Amino acid sequence: MKAIVIALLLVLTTVGFPKTAFAHALQADYSLLRQSQLEIRANFSDGEPYPFADVQIFAPSDKHHPWLESKADAQGRFEFMPDASLRGDWTVKIGKSDHKDILTVPVTERGVEVNDISQGVGQPLKAQLMV
Fold it and tell me: What is the pTM assigned to this prediction?
């Protein structure tokens, strides 16, 4: 009897577990297009783009009011060029509710510090340079 209950629990957790929950995690990647212009791409964890994802960009001086609000295109892409006179950590929020990601984009007198861009809680991302 115990073996039947364990087998039944294994079947229910394997079959009954919602697989779509994993397919909807959001990942934001970026490329430096030229100087300080970034192209940011919003994709679900299965590689599909997040079309028309909400985008909010916050300047270093004001983390409560967006400097820019926009939407990604149909392929989940948008371009962003921070104001070089506003140095510090810019915050880019992509998506909404449980389908979102946050990038921190440091800007210095040299422009965007590509190697120091972080995601979520400060984990460095891999940059693609496209100059």
Answer: 0.71
